[in-house]
Amino acid sequence: MTAISSLTSNYITATSYNQSINDNSSASVQLQSTVLEATETAKPAQPTRFDRLKQLYKGVRNTPNDEEVSFSYADFAQAVEETEYAFERNTVVEGTAVEITQAGAIVDIGAKASAFLPAQEASLNMEDGKGIEQLQEMIPIDTPMEFQIISEEDENGQLLVSVKRLQYKKAWERVVELAAEDAVLEAPVVNVNRGGAICLIEGLRAFLPGSHLTGQLPDENLIGQTLPLKFLEVNPETSKLVVSNRKAVVEQQMEDLSRGDLVQGMVKALKPYGAFVEVGGMSGLLHISQISYDRIDDLEKVLQPGMQIKCMIIDHDKVNGRIALSTKTLEPEPGDMLKNPTLVFDKAEETAAAYHARMDAERQAREEAARDIVLGLGDSLDDLGASGDGDAASGDSDPLQDVSDSLNSLLK
Fold first, then answer.
1. Which of 43, 51, 85, 339 could serve as a FRET partner for 37 with CA atoms 20 to 30 Å apart?
2. Cα(190)–Cα(193) distance, rounded to whole angstroms?
3. Rounded CA separation 286/310 (Å)
4. CA-CA distance, 16 to 13, in Å (whole number)?
5. Are 232 and 244 in contact (CB under 8 A)?
6. Interacting residues of 122 by C-beta distance below 8 A, sequence separation 6+
């Protein structure tokens, strides 16, 4: 009994405790509901006088007064409309460098942000290793210059500009003009390679093939030399520029050459019909019939490639740069080129002088003979007049044609 009574007492106590907790929770929930209802039914706070003034304030108002300035607002609006702000790619604009750095220059071109000129775009003739000093020389501060826009705006509104591309375009225009004039120009050699050399013309790199280089090989010794050049190919569309040193040298030398000149050259090649001799960068033909007065059966017994010889110019083609040569005119005696070529070359100047004297004497003799024929022509005309109509009717002979044939035979 005692145990049952104890259990019953404990149960009643627990039930009372739980009932108490439930009562407290109900009271708390009821309190929260009351607070929410009071909050919802509360009226919003009324704005103060300062809040109302703040909402009505629109800032300081300026009344336009056109009398105090030299232009009106209408004039200003019209000027803005007429001003063009073209900052598209490839547009040429005027600007001023305001700062020089190792990487490039900051340029004011009138855009919303300063443009940037990379160092590699500063000039067509930038040299390696000179750094900021060269850049300052190419792009002086506060000096108006033309720039070409080469990019779109970045996220900061900045553009990239170039001076090099403007110079490149102008250089090609100048090269095209020089090529049209067929001018001989001088240019330095800046590099060499296996195929030839690289020359600098108006800031552009031109290729000089080794086959068009006169008297030299395309090696390191050529770098820094200034050579006379002529254009072989000029193509701005493909940026192809090819020049020739040999063509320029030939043209310059051909102006000073004439028939009868004594020149020295080197045998370059032997052919069945003669030998090719290089004379001052020009290729001359020494025909086998012009080597000696005697017949030549084996040309290799007389001349060998690489042999230095003296010869006389007997004809030339200045347009194509070709010359015809002769050694038989330098022989003291017919056949000396076969017997003793060294003797022929040693006495070349003396023999050439004697040859010129003989040619002058023959020319004077032909001129005197022609003069005698012309003087005798008057007598022939008198005879024609005296003969009357009889000879004219026959028409079988022509004395004037006979005189012309005589003159041609003497002047040949």
1. 51
2. 11
3. 11
4. 5
5. yes
6. 104, 105, 135, 138, 139, 163, 164
Return the ∠ at Cα 195 (arms to 192 and 198), rounded to 5°: 35
Name the least confident of 74-78, 307-311, 324-328, 334-338: 74-78
Can you tell me the distance from the alpha carbon of 286 to that of 8, in angstroms, rounded to the nearest whole number? 149
- Per the structure block, which two tokens stand in for 365? 């003799």
The sheet carrying 92-100 orders its strands as: 115-118, 104-108, 92-100, 144-149, 161-162
Element housing 329 (H / E): none
158: amino acid identity, one letter: Q
Beta strands, E only, 59-203: 92-100, 104-108, 115-118, 144-149, 161-162, 185-192, 196-201
- Which of 209, 207, 196, 195 lies closest to 239, judged by CA? 207
| Residues ≥6 apart with Cβ < 8 Å to 199 | 187, 188, 189, 190, 205, 206, 207, 208, 227, 229, 243
Tell me the C-alpha distance between 307 and 266, whole Å: 6
* 191 DSSP β-pair partners: 198
Q: With the C-alpha atoms ordered 376, 380, 382, 386, is the resulting torsion angle positive or negative?
A: positive
- Residue ranges per structural domain of the chain: 92-162, 168-249, 257-346
Least confident piece of the model among 170-179, 357-366, 379-388: 379-388
Specify whether domain 257-346 bears CATH 2.40.50.140: yes
Q: Domain 92-162's class?
A: mainly beta
Same fold for the domain at 92-162 and the one at 257-346?
yes
Residue whose C-alpha is closest to residue 279's, from 244, 254, 304: 254
Q: Which CATH number is 168-249's, of 3.40.50.300, 2.40.50.140, 2.60.40.1180, 2.30.30.240?
A: 2.40.50.140
Report the distance separating Cα 215 and Cα 213, nearest Å: 7
pLDDT, tens digit, 9 for 90 and up, residues 271-309? 989 998 888 767 788 999 999 989 888 888 888 898 898
